[in-house]
Amino acid sequence: MTQPVNPPARLLMGPGPIDADPRVLRALSTALVGQYDPWMTATMTETQELYRQVFGTRNDATVLVDGTSRAGIEAALVSLLAPGDRVLVPVFGRFGHLLAEIATRAGAEVHTIETEWGQVFPPSVIEDAVRRVRPKVLAVVQGDTSTTMNQPLDELGAICERHGVLLYSDATASIGGNPLETDAWGIDVVSAGLQKCLGGPSGSAPITLSPRAVAVLDGRRSIEAGIREADDVVSDDPIRSNYLDLAMILDYWGPRRLNHHTEAASMLYAANECARILLEEGREAVIERHATAGRAMLAGVEALGLRVFGDVAHKMHNVVAVEIPDDVVGDEVRGAMLEDHGIEIGTSFGPLHGRVWRIGTMGYNARKDTVVRTLAALEHCLRRAGHVVPQGAGVDAALDVHAAADVHAAADVHAAADVHAPGDVHTGSTAPVGAPA
Amino acid sequence: MTQPVNPPARLLMGPGPIDADPRVLRALSTALVGQYDPWMTATMTETQELYRQVFGTRNDATVLVDGTSRAGIEAALVSLLAPGDRVLVPVFGRFGHLLAEIATRAGAEVHTIETEWGQVFPPSVIEDAVRRVRPKVLAVVQGDTSTTMNQPLDELGAICERHGVLLYSDATASIGGNPLETDAWGIDVVSAGLQKCLGGPSGSAPITLSPRAVAVLDGRRSIEAGIREADDVVSDDPIRSNYLDLAMILDYWGPRRLNHHTEAASMLYAANECARILLEEGREAVIERHATAGRAMLAGVEALGLRVFGDVAHKMHNVVAVEIPDDVVGDEVRGAMLEDHGIEIGTSFGPLHGRVWRIGTMGYNARKDTVVRTLAALEHCLRRAGHVVPQGAGVDAALDVHAAADVHAAADVHAAADVHAPGDVHTGSTAPVGAPA
Ligand SMILES: Cc1ncc(COP(=O)(O)O)c(C=O)c1O
Ligand SMILES: Cc1ncc(COP(=O)(O)O)c(C=O)c1O
């Protein structure tokens, strides 16, 4: 017989998954309860409320899809898009291609615009395409992990509003580490995953839908034969998936609690704890922590003399793409990082495969000590591979960024102390002193 | 802020989910590792081998689908059936309807035959329908949890072979608790879930595909744009789902390890441990344990004067449908079981809703003490509800069944000792002494 799973010690500093927060690992081992147990339905309801806060929304329709992030993407697209419906996908990396691919399989008429990998789209370019294509849905990745770019979304809601288009965004890689304001930015549907800045395991996809998006689903609702009641609607063109039919998933999470799948309780517990951890620290403080760790990692790799790929002003806080120097073999350095230092960093896809390393600072791992450990190891591996690097410069630069951030945060708290009474909720981008580094 | 999840103490004796084995809960909290870490890919490969043994197959294509059992069903049907393909579904309960529904949404031409709830189909009736419909796929539930019936599958492979039909079966509720011989019975595709007799959480769907089934997928393979290489095939009629495209899922688990989703590592760990627990005890011993606990529960409810629904000769070992006596309100008794005794039992769907309770004895909960505790509580709740029940008769009857099984097992071991050398592997239906009761 095989032995129980017993993984080697690793520090996961790639583009995700990253080390889950130990609190999330503990939540995963919580005892199961039946899916209609009052405690269970209350826990589902509570988790919905937590994710409303994570997404920055008041959308009633905020639930988990029981699958990985791409299940969330497919649930959104297959549920919103009937065969023949037009969708516009601005592609700026691998995950834009994924959205287009999923929409194609859903039978939609897919239009794409593309920009060079390493860039994002100016809103005006997207608006021009919207005007030309007149899609039902504009589907755009927020942070495309393949290039590290973070597409600005804050003006897209207004554009979609003007043209009567639904706006969907995949925030899998960006949520938690970068600003995302579902309601304030007018995004109709956002889907995500736990395994990046939320510090959880892959396998649950939080999703939120505006009333406008729910209205589209309502028109496509069809309750399955095994549990249908006499007065229930039956569509003759139902959503093409049963498992990922968001109308049914919402009926399961909603007051009717219509049987669909059996909620994956362990993953629900994990999702619940991920959100609690984020909201306890505070949404803005968590973003600030990612910003600091990301700046530190960026400063560190630059101080090691490495070049950073893409439009740095538009990269996500939580991941950086580092160009692999010509005099080393990328996968050998990556291998040494893993084998000699126990640290995982990533490569990328398509045109960037073998050209960049992607180094993440996400969720539980967006910390000073993880940044420092990674930079020290990278310096060592580069030197061993024969690439000349300045001794200690990467770690120094990262420590400087963290020190400056600490001073800044302390100053903010002093300033805040003058105007806020104790116990006031902090908003804005100030991290309270004592928040995880 | 909300509190950490903290469920009430429950004993889950419904139709599933049931209490996860504590070993599985512990496995869930194992640290994450990157998806291409050599340890991770080795663990995936090991898990495939474990599930080959659980399914009774040598199929190379044995993997997990990252979703609940119905994700496994949909993956099988949407991947095998192109739009317009004919599928035959014998319906003998709610989950037969589900198969038909999922196939309809996949665009297949769906033909059903139905039998009364509480019955199964004689193979000859299925063969007649196969002859008439000439489907590409025969899709049949093994154990339909809604009625507790266990459709005999052992002759269906030969029927399908004769008519050149692919055979798919949903073994979610039956696997582990009842015989299932994927290869010996000639079943092409079987999908399952962890949350019944395998003693795990919902959210991972083990699936196995014969080479014949894989050949069908090969004809539909289409690698997505974001990761496609120059010489990769692109189908102009790809499988309608990306997330549940088994051709891509097999490429991810196979030697090419083509990126698809991020494996849900925590659920993989759980699935791995579920299989290890089953195989350590031995497949036949586990089935025998379910048979004994199921007989004990059946004898117990009958001794309490309750009637059992359906064709008892064909029920699954692991669940019994008990007719609700006329003089009590089913949901009140169920509520008292939960609130006063901490025990969950189920009701059913459609025509059986409010007419039967479903009591499960599955996985970790297929034990003597759980059966006894449930029967004692049921006696009490029935009496409190005003229904006359013989005092202690249910528990007595269950204990008698367990005692007889122990004697039988001991005799078997004695007999076996005469013919087997120590250390021989037990096959057949004998439970070794000392196996969990
Ligand atoms: C026979 C059968 N098939 C499929 C399912 C669906 O499984 P899930 O709820 O895990 O999606 C169930 C669930 O009870 C079942 O009993
Ligand atoms: C931006 C983005 N979208 C979607 C996905 C797909 O997520 P999953 O692998 O969880 O299905 C990823 C995974 O890395 C991602 O980074």
From TrEMBL, chains A, B:
UniProt domain Aminotransferase class V: residue ranges: 40-346
GO function terms (MF aspect): transaminase activity
The family this protein is said to belong to: Belongs to the class-V pyridoxal-phosphate-dependent aminotransferase family.
Keyword Secreted: no
Cofactor: pyridoxal 5'-phosphate
PANTHER family noted in UniProt: ALANINE--GLYOXYLATE AMINOTRANSFERASE, AMINOTRANSFERASE CLASS V
Top-rank lineage group of the source organism: Bacteria
InterPro entries found in the cross-reference section: Aminotrans_V_dom, PyrdxlP-dep_Trfase, PyrdxlP-dep_Trfase_major, PyrdxlP-dep_Trfase_small, SP_NH2Trfase/AEP_transaminase
Residues forming coiled coils: none
One Pfam family of this chain: Aminotran_5
Name of the protein described by the UniProt record: Alanine--glyoxylate aminotransferase family protein
Key words, A-Z: Aminotransferase, Pyridoxal phosphate, Transferase
